[in-house]
Write a structure and sequence with these properties.
four-stranded antiparallel beta sheet; binds magnesium ion; 7 helices; binds adenosine-5'-triphosphate; 267 residues; alpha/beta
Length: 267
């Protein structure tokens, strides 16, 4: 038998047999969960997780970031166990900018471990600041209300992308934004993320947002949690406002909505 092992695409994220209990195994919040995401090093990918509140979405991101270990099961990132895993960045449910630093220093922080001079870091950070539309704000403190909620979230996204992580975890990053700012942030993200070739794992409650941004959508059932649906989003790779006018986009939103209801009825 030929051995194909070396030619198989490896999983950048590999969660197997995951279980989570907080009371010594009497109740399981997560049970028998698998989450296997293949590496696509030259193009990056955008994976979305949907699921009811309390279904364990933030918990899964914490496993991948190495901030928490599951009660049972194995977590491997890029083929390695957690403690050796690197280059995972996280944008949290609430703003994760550092309010005592300027916008420029916040964004440049993403580069601090990459052995560049301060001038070089600032130059690259300014390019990113332009990309996220905050040119002119670079010397302001990254705090509310000096910057608005959407601007602060752009700072966090800019810093995370500039760090060029293999995996970028985004936990409802636009959840606290008004509708207009949220749409602008979606457009911004859909426009720029391709340049960075990261695997993005994005958690949201917004189905339209999931379809607009995602290549793959995974739906979690609750009590106990595990993935029970996977939808491939067959829309063009590059999404624009026009994508939302396409018939297939609307069909996919309805399809995902139906599946969410089916999954919610599972218990
Ligand atoms: N230390 C803990 N002890 C007991 N239960 C916990 C603990 N930490 C988390 N949980 C439970 O784990 C479950 C999953 O929480 P998690 O924050 O991952 O959900 P989520 O899917 O991100 O929800 P949301 O959509 O509201 O952000 C919740 O039911 C929560 O109550
Ligand atoms: Mg959460």
């Amino acid at each position: 038998m030929p051995n194909f092992t070396d030619t198989e695409l490896r999983n950048i994220i590999d969660l197997r047999g995951i279980g989570q209990s907080y009371d010594g195994g009497q109740n399981w919040i997560i049970k028998d969960l698998e989450f296997l995401i293949e590496d696509k090093p030259e193009q990056g990918q955008f994976v979305v997780i949907l699921g009811m509140s309390g279904s364990g979405k933030s918990t899964l991101l914490r496993y991948i970031a190495g901030l928490q270990e599951p009660t049972e099961g194995s977590v491997k990132i890029d083929g390695k166990p957690l403690d050796e895993a690197q280059r995972v960045s996280m944008v949290f449910q609430r703003y994760s900018s550092l309010p005592w630093m300027s916008v420029l220093d916040n964004v440049a922080l993403g580069l601090q471990y990459q052995g560049m001079s301060k001038n070089e870091r600032n130059e690259k950070a300014m390019e990113m600041i332009q990309l996220i539309g905050l040119d002119g704000h670079q010397h302001k403190y990254a705090q509310y209300p000096t910057l608005s909620g959407g601007q602060l979230q752009r700072v966090a996204i800019g810093r995370s992308l500039l760090a060029n992580p293999q995996i970028l975890l985004m936990d409802e990053p636009f959840g606290a934004l008004d509708v207009k700012t949220r749409l602008q942030m979606q457009d911004l993200l859909s426009k720029i993320w391709h340049q960075f070739h990261s695997t993005i794992v994005f958690v949201t409650h917004d189905i339209a947002e999931a379809v607009y941004l995602g290549d793959d959508i995974y739906i979690l059932k609750s009590a106990p949690s595990k993935f029970v649906r996977h939808i491939k989003v067959d829309l063009p790779l590059i999404r624009t406002r026009e994508t939302k006018r396409e018939k297939r986009y609307t069909e996919l939103v309805h399809l995902v909505e139906d599946q969410m209801i089916e999954v919610a009825d599972m218990g």
